[in-house]
């Protein structure tokens, strides 16, 4: 199947071929024709499936085909959960729309309100926004949403997780009823289904990545290790394999900072991104990471949303996420569109129940590999935990002390230094 066969017009085909895409991804094959026909869609697709182009290309074409009121107020609105994702979707819209006459703006928090208001006043066609900042503009009267023809809700599950439901509903109240709505969500929880029910009109359902199937190009390995030796093991692995671009997940902002500091002390160029950092600091860290000036980027789940790096080869779960679905989100950062990826998880005793929940969701056990010199002081047999722990409920366990904690590791992180 080719992009031509999907019915896209010449300017878009040119933009697609400029990007070097030769074939539409599965979500694009399904979403593009449905959106071009004006249908609402409810799509389950993870980041990395090509979903952004999947909605952006037909959205641009619809705007070009539809008659406009002549007023330069937003005709398409894309809502995203985070600033990073808004910025990245915005960049994609600019990239795919470069041969079209549309004006595009992004509004999100953390940057000057006035500058955004000025841009909105000058007239735009497509607006990409996070819900909170958009509502600020709505209440200040700096944006008029009455001409929106197409609404996209990107990473909807994440918007609900972040508590944006009321903001989303308020924004809906400002939009025309007569519109096309496209909803994307990695998971289909009850609240997502309820929202879909109220917002979508006979939607086409597209399901390219069932939530319990992870990107099959990602090799997943679990390293059981005592908690207090995790940092040392991580330095060792990065140095031993000479990994040059590694995204590491921690559960908390504080944990991200602390780990970044410790890895820096091990001689690894490291940056941390999380919600307490300014937008400028997050953008800088991401840029340094993309350009190879930073070797290890430590991130929390929320801050990592929408990190879009082609060919990101390694993802490390320094700690497992509390929600199994987040595991899929995290490892979806690697193994994207045609590239192989590797995801490793460092698991301590207290995380065994989380591992069990993840394996249940994936419907497969994950390969375990004990690193020589870092043997854990606990049993990592998940079949034992399965029977002991209540389903999905993390069991609290006091980590046992490792007898070998003071002995030197067999292979130190020294190869990572310098
Ligand atoms: P997304 O799921 O939208 O975050 O896209 C993931 C990555 O796939 C992005 O880096 C896109 O540039 C890339 N991509 C999107 N569509 C295609 C395609 N048809 N062929 C190859 N790469 C693509």
From TrEMBL:
* Record Pfam families: DEAD, Helicase_C
Q: Which UniProt keywords apply?
A: ATP-binding, Cytoplasm, Helicase, Hydrolase, Nucleotide-binding
Domain Helicase ATP-binding span(s) in chain numbering: 32-206
Q: Does the keyword RNA-binding apply?
A: no
Q: Which GO terms describe its molecular function?
A: ATP binding; hydrolase activity; RNA binding; RNA helicase activity
Domain DEAD-box RNA helicase Q residues, every copy: 1-29
According to the UniProt record, one GO cellular component term is: cytosol
According to the UniProt entry, what is the EC number of this protein?
3.6.4.13
UniProt-annotated stretches for the region Disordered: 375-418
Q: Where is this motif: Q motif?
A: 1-29
* Family annotation (InterPro entries): DEAD/DEAH_box_helicase_dom, DEAD/DEAH_RhlB, DEAD_box_RNA_helicase, Helicase_ATP-bd, Helicase_C-like, P-loop_NTPase, RNA_helicase_DEAD_Q_motif
- Residues of the Helicase C-terminal domain: 232-378
Please list the reactions this protein catalyses.
ATP + H2O = ADP + phosphate + H(+)
Q: Which family does it belong to?
A: Belongs to the DEAD box helicase family.
Protein's recorded name: RNA helicase
